[in-house]
Structures are given as C-alpha cells and as structure tokens.
Amino acid sequence: MITEYLDRISITVVAEDSVLYESPYWGQHGISLYVQAEHNTVVRNILIDVGQSPEALLHNMRLLGIDPASIDAIVLTHCHYDHTQGLAEVLKAIGKRDLPVIAHPDLFRLDFIVNPYLRHVGVMAGDSRQELEANGACLFLTADPLQLLPGLTTTGYIPRTTDFEEVGIPLKTIDSEGKVVMDPMNDDISVIAALKDEGLVILSGCSHAGIVNIVKHAKSYSGIDTVACVIGGLHLVEAPMERIKKTVDAMHDLVGGTVFAGHCTGFNAQVELRKQFGDRFKPLQTGQKFVFGK
Ligand SMILES: [Fe+2]
Ligand SMILES: [Fe+2]
Predict the structure, then answer these.
(1) How confident is the model at residue 87, as a pLDDT?
(2) Domain range holding 67?
(3) What domain count does the chain have?
(4) Cis peptide before 100 (omega within 30 of 0)
C-alpha cells in the first residue's frame, strides 16, 4: 500500500532507440530515464537503466543540461546489456561513493540466446559486481519492492497472472544444478510513482514480466486504481498479433491516462496502441520530458 504521494515528478528520456524530430540527441538500442522526484521539499534524482552506450547517454545528458553528479541512485530494471552496459563508466561520471544501485538479486546471472548463435545478453564483464562496487555503487539487490522516497518505489518481482504474456525472447540460463533452462526473467522490475491528483506513473524497462502483469501489480501493490501514465518498452517487437491485441485491449481497460511506449515495443504494437488510445498514445523518443504534479 502506498500512503504518501510525490508532490512532483519529471521524467526525461536520456536514451532510447529513436530521437525527437530535428533533435541533436544520439539514439541507441536501449533505454534510460532520468527521474526527478520531489516529496516534502526533498528532491532525489534517479536514473532508471543506462542504455548500452555511456558515450551516447552522457552526450544526451550534456545537451539536456543534466549533470551526472546530480544522480542520487540508479535502478536497473533487468540484466540486459541494452539497459546495463557501461554502468561502471556512468558511475565514474557520477563520481560518488556508496551510490545506491537497486536491482533484483538475479541480476548478475548468465542470460543467453542460442539463435543465431550462443551469446550472453545480460550484464557484461566490464559491469561486474566488483567493477560497480569499485566505482562507487552500493548494491541493493532485492526481489521486494523498495521505497526510493515516499510515493516512489520499485515494484520488486512481478507476479505473472495473465495467460497471454511471456518473456518475449527465448532466453536461457544455467540453473544451480548446471542444467540449461529457459530464463523466466524473474529480475524484471519497474518503478511506480504515486501522485495525489493524477494517480500512478509506471516506468518500465522492457516489460519482460508482461506490461499487463506490471500494471495490475502496480495497482494492487499501491492500492491506487488510477493510472496517469505508462512509460517504457513493452517488448512486443516479435509478438504475434493475437498477443498484441490482447495486451492492448487489457491496457485499454486498465490505463485511463497516457502511454508512451518505445524501445522494444515494436511497430505493430505501436500501431495497435495508437488505434485504441488515439492521442493518448505516443512513441517514446530520446529528449522527451514528462511532468506530473505541481
Ligand atoms: Fe531492452
Ligand atoms: Fe530486455
């Protein structure tokens, strides 16, 4: 249950696969959101994911007037390289000690594809636990929701309740007995902001847990039924039309506000969202800024 609200939140897209029309920003396959959250005069700046190119991320932050040293904490939505690569470099640019880095305990596991060839797609060696800690990270690894400040929390593990959603990629891992098994992406977490007048703002990375599962969990965990906005990647890029239609139908029932979806959402899902949400849907792009609250 969320009992306190943020006074204000702003979300700036500092990394994404596409860029705003005529903008000077650099695109990259990945996502990173710079979040400024305010509660009772306390302001915290939180970076959600870092994309995969610290060069492009820091370039965009410079153009947007965002000082890396302003970052107070980092949330990693899941292990994938397009959300975590270069984190050690970003920590160097931030230049702090004991900077909270929040993620699920499974973050550093092997996570791989075998098609078109064997390739690890999780956290890369340059961003190992040791590298992150050497560059100032204080790791908070938990499957539970973790409050970042009153009115802003991570979701923790997302229960899988729908029968039509799945990870979206045939990912594998190696279990504790050395067996090669499908990877359920239990580390997929999101961030929820609660605003008194507007309701929930839900920020996701790739939504490997399923965006409908995420929105349902955000509502039941927070006790708040109104969704003002969903921002992030929905990982429907390779999904069959049947799943896309079921997802967008369910989203339409659950979300009365806006949806800004990009990265791994895919064109078919974006078209379907536009059809159902009309102007309440827009593709997510580098350089966008969203503000909720006063
Ligand atoms: Fe991704
Ligand atoms: Fe992903």
Answers:
(1) 98
(2) 8-156+166-293
(3) 1
(4) no
Cα of 160 vs centre of ligand 1, distance in Å, is 19
CA of 294 to the centre of ligand 1 (A): 31
Give the full edge-to-edge strand order of the sheet including 281-283: 147-149, 152-154, 191-195, 199-203, 227-233, 258-262, 281-283
Please tell me the number of the ligand nearest to residue 122's CA.
2
Q: Does 231 fall in a domain?
A: yes
Distance 214 CA to ligand 2 centre (A): 15
- Is 1 within the bounds of a domain? no
In DSSP terms, 93 is beta-bridged to none
Q: Kindly give the distance from the C-alpha atom of residue 197 to the centroid of ligand 1, in angstroms, as a whole number.
A: 31
User: What count of residues does the chain have?
Assistant: 294
Instruction: Say what the pTM is.
Output: 0.98
CA of 187 to the centre of ligand 2 (A): 10
Closest ligand by atom to 30 CA: 1
Q: pLDDT tens digits for 63-78? A: 999 999 999 999 999 9
As given in the structure block, the two tokens for residue 141 are 């690894």
